[in-house]
UniProtKB/TrEMBL annotation:
Residues 1-27 form the signal peptide. This is ABC transporter substrate-binding protein. Residues 60-285 form the Solute-binding protein family 3/N-terminal domain. Gene3D superfamilies: Periplasmic binding protein-like II (3.40.190.10). PANTHER family: ARGININE-BINDING EXTRACELLULAR PROTEIN ARTP, MEMBRANE-BOUND LYTIC MUREIN TRANSGLYCOSYLASE F. Keywords: Signal. SMART domains: PBPb (SM00062). It holds the Pfam family SBP_bac_3. InterPro entries: Solute-binding_3/MltF_N. It comes from Orlajensenia flava. It comes from the Bacteria.
Length: 299
């Protein structure tokens, strides 16, 4: 997810709405199958040699994640984390000769878990920002923009949405920054504000549009594209993707894990494993050829 505020603010009815509307969006495991196994991934000895001894001895990487953001990370019917980022992490761990163990957590708790050594890594669609880089390092593996969607047949321009109802997942960047900024532009110009509808989960935000309770939704590009696919003919793209920014795996400052994770992911790019995962989930448009570190401060 993009930048989230420290304290979530959601509609009091969000949980009830999510339950009421759950029939519209199908977040079951995609037809391509469950999370990719790591058995066919070849270990990269050079990358594995960079692991801290504690991780090598434990034989696992503890990864904090908030699985509420399909298709990036969400839960299967048994409650286990799945998604393209989960597949990517499983393969990365295999490259390093260890297993991935997921620590399900609220988004706001993931960085503190990493800095407090309760988790080795954080993987939950984190946007790399200079502010966050003051706390942790980021290994950058993907580029995601913001993408709007509207109800099928309803033309919506994200740059001219004054007076419309726009659904967002609470505490995402779209909720805290993007939509409020657009709304301020409206009121500064003497036009009606954007009516922002906040929901606890992305499913609920998507369903609000599908059922006509909102005119549009705003989310990270892979999430919006997935939502459109999952709702059949109920949603359509509204405008083009904008404000691209790098996703990053959260690593404790100055940890040897930065180099190990970077080298493992670059090895996956080189042997095609990286592209295979992205292609499976239909999110290859945001793929990168070079795995970088702390891109926000380099830009």
């Amino acid at each position: 997810m993009r930048i989230r505020s420290a304290l979530p603010v959601a509609l009091a009815t969000a949980a009830a709405a999510a339950l009421l509307l759950s029939g519209c969006v199908n977040n079951s495991t995609p037809s391509t199958g469950s999370s990719t196994g790591a058995s066919d991934v070849k270990k990269d000895d050079a990358a594995a040699a960079l692991l801290p001894d504690s991780v090598t001895k434990a034989g696992k990487l503890v990864i904090g994640t908030d699985p509420t953001y399909a298709p990036n990370e969400y839960k299967d019917d048994a409650g286990n984390p799945i998604g393209w980022e989960i597949d990517l992490a499983n393969a990365m761990a295999a490259k390093l000769g260890v297993k991935a163990e997921y620590q399900v957590s609220k988004f706001d708790n993931i960085i503190p878990s990493v800095t407090g050594s309760k988790a080795d890594l954080g993987l939950s669609s984190f946007t790399d920002t200079t502010e966050r880089e003051k706390q942790v390092d980021f290994v950058n593996y993907y580029s995601a923009g913001i993408q709007w969607a509207s109800a099928k047949g309803k033309d919506v321009d994200p740059d001219n949405a004054c007076g419309l109802k726009v659904a967002v997942q609470a505490t995402t960047y779209e909720d805290t920054d993007e939509v409020p900024a657009k709304s301020k532009d409206c009121t500064d110009a003497g036009k009606p504000e954007i009516q922002k509808l906040q929901f606890d989960t992305q499913d609920a935000a998507t369903n609000a549009v599908a059922l006509g309770q909102a005119d549009a939704m705003s989310a990270d590009s892979p999430v919006t594209l997935y939502a459109i696919a999952q709702t059949g003919d109920k949603l359509q793209l509204a405008g083009k993707t904008f404000d691209d920014a790098p996703y990053g795996i959260v690593v404790k400052k100055d940890s040897k894990l930065v180099q190990a994770v970077q080298k493992a992911l670059q090895s996956m790019v080189a042997d095609g494993t990286y592209k295979k995962v992205l292609d499976k989930w239909g999110v290859a448009d945001g793929g990168v050829s070079t795995i970088d570190v702390n891109l926000a401060s380099k830009g």
